[in-house]
Amino acid sequence: MSHPRLKSNLQALALSALLATTSVMAAPQAQAQVLPSPATPTAARPAQQPTWKTVPTQQITAGDVSFAYRELGQQNGGTPVLLLAHLAAVLDNWDPRVVDGLAARHHVIAFDNRGVGASTGAPANTIEQMADDAIRFIEAKGLQQVDLFGFSMGGMISQEIALKAPQRVRKMILAGTGPAGGRGISAVAGVANYDLIRATLTGQDPKQYLFFTRSAKGIEAGQAFLARLQERTEQRDANIAIGAYVAQLQALAAWGQKRPADLSAIQQPVLVANGDDDRMVPSSNSYDLAKRLPHAQLIIYPDAGHGGIFQYHEDFVPKALAFLAN
């Protein structure tokens, strides 16, 4: 590993493994179809709501960007929950159990950042730019106010949105994330690339290392999570490009070196959640957020890493629903 060429080759191989996929997104406007059972007349069947596995991907234009997005639970009404994703994530990286659980009671919307997945435009390389894009998306959808659910990098974007456009935000869920200048955040690139390499060398998915502990319970939870991410087999999202991944790493490095913000300005209720052993964004950042946000609740899951909310989805979803309902 000490030879520069070998190290470079392994990093390239690992990154290729992260970005590899066997399917790409089909036409954005394609609609999911539900075929009636031959034994039951179509008119007698209740309307079947789509799930994260089947909901079609759509496009909406905001300025010079066409954003790819999916939405569920419109029939629930109320304040929509906007999902903001992690480093290198596209739509298919959201856990179906979490999304479907929230959509059972709420209108839920997830979208790809500019230049990521099936969204167009040059990828943003700062958290501030990503927050601006999210605000443009909210406005393009005609939403007066949203609840933000930000995971990892998405939690950083959520904080910026709340500071930039507080009138747009009712509540926030911040999971596996940290504040500007938080401990260890500027080192995310090193942690991510190291785990990309060892995942490639061991034939694992990088998220098995990045999101979960190496205990028997953590490994089992990671395998179950990765299996859930493959449940959608049609109209899967496009991969994140290497250039967009690099831009996001730049954004995280800058966020980790940024001067801490005055989070007391965020007056919205906030639910902070993480595992107790987060390698990507050290768990101490979650404690820090909960202390600095005036109206915060904190959940820390045992024997869990960055993906604690996915490992404990059966506990997290009811807690998130209760938080959003109050």
Structure overview:
The termini are far apart. The longest helix has 16 residues, at 4-19. By secondary structure, the protein is α/β, with parallel strands linked by helices. It has eleven helices and eight strands.
N-to-C span:
53 Å
Strand segment tally? 8
Roughly how much helix do the residues carry, as a percent range? 25-40%
Mean of pLDDT:
89
**Strand arrangement across the biggest beta sheet:** 1-2-4-3-5-6-7-8
What are the main properties of this structure?
eight-stranded mixed β-sheet, 8 strands, 326 residues, alpha/beta
What is the compact description of this entry?
The chain has eleven helices and eight strands. It has 326 residues and is an alpha/beta fold.
Write the layout of secondary structure elements.
Layout: H1 4-19, E1 58-62, E2 65-72, E3 81-84, H2 96-103, E4 108-111, H3 127-140, E5 146-151, H4 153-164, E6 169-175, H5 188-202, H6 206-210, H7 216-229, H8 242-257, E7 270-275, H9 284-292, E8 296-301, H10 308-311, H11 313-325
Parallel strand pairs: 3-4, 3-5, 5-6, 6-7, 7-8
Antiparallel strand pairs: 1-2, 2-4
Helix pairs in contact: 1-5, 2-11, 3-4
